[in-house]
Amino acid sequence: MQWETVIGLEVHVQLATRSKIFSGASTAFGAEPNTQACAVDLGLPGVLPVLNENAVAMALRFGLAIDAEIPEVSVFERKNYFYPDLPKGYQTSQMAQPIVGRGTVEILLEDGSRKAIRIHHAHLEEDAGKSLHEDFIGMSGIDLNRAGTPLLEIVSEPDMRSAKEASAYLRAIHTLVTYLGISDGNMAEGSMRCDVNVSVRPKGQAAFGTRAEVKNVNSFRFVERAIAFEVERQIDLLEEGGKVVQETRLFDPEADETRSMRTKEEANDYRYFPCPDLLPLMLDSAYVDHQRSLLPELPGTKRERFIEQLGLSTYDADILASDRDTAEYFEQVMAACDDPKLAANWVQGDLSARLNRAGLSIGESPVSAEQLGGLLKRIKDETINGKAAKQVFSDLWERRFENADQVIEIKGLKQVTDSGALAQVIDQVIEANPVQVTQYREATEEKRGKMLGFFVGQVMKASRGTANPQQVNALLKQKLDALC
């Protein structure tokens, strides 16, 4: 039987506020356990929550960025369940009236086409604490530092049909929230994680199959692996005559499998009801318009501008626009050298390679955008050739000089374009290699083209890489052919 995969994601994004959603406690990462949980986060008697306005603004900006419906009124509710890392016995969340309604996120598929993924809604909620098992023999420790951290939960429709599409969607969400500045998107620190809803159905069937929810997957790669395993598990189960049970499962990356955690709860299991401590949230048009005015140029708009105005390829534009820091760095380099394609090649090529080897982000680059732009200006005006440019870049990377012009001047890397000076070097190379000259003279025209590279290399070596390669090729061929 032919099977179709159906996937929906619930992405939890930690909002980049300095304090928690209902208290003034810090959200900074890495503090000692239980040092950033105040009385409000712990739900102690007599305390009342106060809504963090910055969390509201960030959620609203996300909704505007995906062109979502923005309701005038949203309501906080209590989601009741009992777990050791939930000290209050309930989570303050939203269900019936979330802050962001229906919208759309576009993803890029492997074949270069695009697909719109519908967003059902996005809602604000507080995070729970964290259970720690590794450092306690036969026991679990509880760290409540995360309790009360503001989250935006983004719930998609079941519009994805493969693990690759799900990964592309997650990357699109990551790109968007980091562009907006509403989250750092650091999945290793838990700033972004997702629950994956997976089901299968016979191809052509309209009704959805029974889904399983895989909880708290925290990397793009793990999302693909978890889905791949879960799809295979469900198909095997159905083809053997069994039934898929609606349940919550956990992905184990070491075993590369999902395992059952508990039977999937329904909404009524949580006994949602409006939070009596928080008034309905009212958003007037003036406030919404103000938040809209704060939106940056979004990734899709930037990508299209790179293609239409700068003449970049779709591939280059997709890569450069996918990260806000990279896009801004590229645009600064381009402004300095006035050559979009040259800037794109170097940012994606030499710079990206060095950053990857050093394990650095583009924001940590030892070579500033202004320095790289200055180097590319010297390539463009033919002050230096490509080989010398790589040496200049290396010196800038090691912070030995302040700018490209210093390196070129002090190290004597200025390209030799004087035909007379080049002719002298070429004559010396021809005189020093009589055997190769004889072989060149006796070779066919086709072989001569290949042998020319030897002489070019010798000239470049003699000129310490400063000769203009195009001139060297032309002059060499002219002199060697004259000897034939």
From TrEMBL:
The keyword Transferase applies. GO terms for molecular function: asparaginyl-tRNA synthase (glutamine-hydrolyzing) activity; ATP binding; glutaminyl-tRNA synthase (glutamine-hydrolyzing) activity; transferase activity. Residues 328-480 form the Asn/Gln amidotransferase domain. Keywords: ATP-binding, Ligase, Nucleotide-binding, Protein biosynthesis, Transferase. GO terms for biological process: glutaminyl-tRNAGln biosynthesis via transamidation; translation. It catalyses: L-aspartyl-tRNA(Asn) + L-glutamine + ATP + H2O = L-asparaginyl-tRNA(Asn) + L-glutamate + ADP + phosphate + 2 H(+); L-glutamyl-tRNA(Gln) + L-glutamine + ATP + H2O = L-glutaminyl-tRNA(Gln) + L-glutamate + ADP + phosphate + H(+). InterPro entries: Asn/Gln-tRNA_amidoTrfase_suB/E (IPR017959), Asn/Gln-tRNA_Trfase_suB/E_cat (IPR006075), Asn/Gln_amidotransferase (IPR018027), Asn/Gln_tRNA_amidoTrase-B-like (IPR003789), GatB (IPR004413), GatB_C_1 (IPR042114), GatB_Yqey_C_2 (IPR023168), Gln-tRNA_amidoTrfase_suB_CS (IPR017958). The keyword Electron transport does not apply. Its EC number is 6.3.5.-. Belongs to the GatB/GatE family. GatB subfamily. Heterotrimer of A, B and C subunits. Allows the formation of correctly charged Asn-tRNA(Asn) or Gln-tRNA(Gln) through the transamidation of misacylated Asp-tRNA(Asn) or Glu-tRNA(Gln) in organisms which lack either or both of asparaginyl-tRNA or glutaminyl-tRNA synthetases. The reaction takes place in the presence of glutamine and ATP through an activated phospho-Asp-tRNA(Asn) or phospho-Glu-tRNA(Gln). This is Aspartyl/glutamyl-tRNA(Asn/Gln) amidotransferase subunit B. It comes from Halotalea alkalilenta.
